[in-house]
Amino acid sequence: MGVKKSRALSNTVVYIIMTIMALIIICPVFYALCGSLKTNLQLMSGESLLPTTWEFQNFIEVWKKANFAQYTFNSLFICFFSTLGAVLLSSLTAFCIERCDFPGRKFVKNLYLMTMFIALGAVTLRPLYTLAVNVGIQNSLWPIILITIGAQGSNVFLVSKFIAGLPKELDEAAIIDGCGPFRILTSIIIPMCKPGIVTVCMISAMAAWNEYPVALVMVTDPTKATLPVGLANLYEIQRYATDWGALFAALVLALIPTVILFIVGQKQLVQGLSVGGVKG
User: Fold this and answer.
1) Which of 27, 103, 119, 237 has its CA 20 to 30 A from that of 170?
2) Is the separation of the CB atoms in 273 and 199 below 8 Å?
3) What distance lies between CA 24 and its chain's CA centroid?
């Protein structure tokens, strides 16, 4: 009886802490949503959290006059190719590490793990910019895509954990049926690692969507700016006469794709992170 009470009390404490953390995360989002539907006068007065009149004009102004459509297209372009490249690279690399015997296999695996502890902006941004200049691809979206793909060693680790949990007898049976390594990967490994692949897609897409320092350094052409850089520019332009309603509307528009992505794939994301963390 005492054990049950202790367990119930601990669960209650955990639920309370999680509720508080959820409120801490949700409150700024809710405030931004309310602010996006207010005029500057309502925001400055601070009379009510909820808008007295709904100002949808803020969204129209941002989309038409702040070049928001171009910023969104650039970020979607980066997201698509970064996610595609991350899935291909992580799947192929993890398959080679877990299913192929070659000298230095463990060293390569540990090398990918080491990259998880290297901050992109702190150490590597300057040499990466120099490399982009030497190659001649600076001031374009491609260096952002390539760096975003290469900066996610955790994807390889995640997919490798899923592959390590699959019995090798499946590969042997496929080889008897005449399948080569690529057919084994595409027909057996990837379908059975679906939660891990979906998790990689979501993590890569959100990382590419929110990428700021690389996009800020690599791109100087305003027409090639990404959404985070465009939001920062919008604030800088309006610093002394800020249209707070439009700025909040821009923030809400930037949040919508990530919220939709999480709602659609949250089950696969949780499953992928939890299963991938205990396999192997």
Assistant:
1) 103
2) yes
3) 21
Q: How far lies 2's CA from each of 5, 16, 159, in Å?
A: 5, 21, 42
DSSP H or E run through 6: helix 2-36
What lies within 8 Å, CB to CB, of 35 at 6+ separation is 43, 244, 245, 248
Global pTM reads: 0.82
Spatial contact of 39 and 53, defined as CB atoms under 8 Å apart: yes
pLDDT digit string, tens, across residues 191-223 = 888 888 888 888 888 889 988 888 888 888 888
Percentages helix, strand, coil for the chain (3-state, rounded to 5) are: 80, 0, 20
Alpha-carbon distances, residue 206 vs 10, 43, 150, 179 (angstroms): 33, 30, 15, 35
pLDDT tens per residue across span 116-132: 777 666 677 888 888 88
Please report, in angstroms and rounded to a whole number, the separation of the first and last CA atoms in the chain: 37
Largest CA distance in the chain: 75
